[in-house]
Every structure is written in structure tokens, then in C-alpha cells.
Amino acid sequence: xxxxxxxxxxxxxxxxxxxxxxxxxxxxxxxxxxxxxxxxxxxxxxxxxxxxxxxxxxxxxxxxxxxxxxxxxxxxxxxxxxxxxxxxxxxxxxxxxxxxxxxxxxxxxxxxxxxxxxxxxxxxxxxxxxxxxxxxxxxxxxxxxxxxxxxxxxxxxxxxxxxxxxxxxxxxxxxxxxxxxxxxxxxxxxxxxxxxxxxxxxxxxxxxxxxxxxxx
Length: 216
Description:
SH3 type barrels; mainly beta; single chain; 1 helix
């Protein structure tokens, strides 16, 4: 193997250890610029970087995808180039699983490290910074602020409000609390998120009737 190609393979192995592309065929650069994934077999694409999320679509052999980043566990994210007015941050990407039939080209060190939403979780997505309140009341004190283009797991819903848990999201240091529904977009089925009525007799976690309503 030529030294230049061997160096490129070593670089990809160090940066993307979980991605089992055809390493012996990885070129050391691309005239197109950026980092590209060239599909060498029928490739499944996922809506979230989680095999339990379900297949979003298929990419045929010979097609190429411009990559936007990679998760810490090796999922490759790309912008599918379709209208996504309701999505922000990592929810704008579609995902290729580690071990896909592919060839990477370009400088892999240029890829951003991306946070990836898990399957089965309902998330609130922000476009602008959103104050996180201590109670589901517009007059309540702010506990923290969820950044713009971020997300947080919705733990509970109550009369136009979401109790969010940013520890499951790209800004895990943000404190949990309440945000108004109209301030965010939602990925997932909000109707599947529990309400206080679903937790009869529970005056604790997330119940607006509780003095500890922001405890998660």
C-alpha cells in the first residue's frame, strides 16, 4: 500500500474507529472538497443515529453524500437536502450506521463531532434561546436557558407547557424546567409524553402540583 494511502487509512481509523468502510480503498483527498461518503452497496439511512429509529430511506451504489459530522459512537450525519422547516440542530441530519458499505474521501479530521438523538425519545427543539422556568407559569422564575439550535428530552406535558430534561440533549449542563409549547418544535409524538393525569397520586417528579416540579 502506498505511504500516502496508508496514512489516510490510519487517520480514518483513529478518528472514526466504529466506521467500517472499505478502508483499503479510501482515497487521501477529494477534488470536490469537504468529506464525502461514496456508497458501494445498497445503504440504509436512518432518521436518528440509532438502529432502533427505523430506516428513513435507501441510498443506491454509486451515489455520494457530503458529510456534516460524526457522533462519538461512529454514526455519520449528512444533510439530506430536503425542506425541514420544523427541525433544528442534529435533527436536520440523516444518519449512516457504523459498518456501512461505503468509501470515505477528504480530510476526516474536518468532521464535527455531533450529538445524536436517541430512538423512542420525544425532544423539544429550539431555534432561539428559550428560558427554562421553575414552574409551568409565565410569571415563574427562570432556572436556566436552553440555547438556540439545541434540544432536550420532554419528560412531561401540562396545559401548554413541557417539562424538559436537557441532560438528554446537546446541552446537558442546562438545568431542567418548564418551557411553553409555542417556543419550541417537537421531534417525536408529544401525545406519548405523560401528563399529571397519567401519574395519579404522584405529587413528585414533574407534577405541577408539587413544590419540586422541576426535579427529574
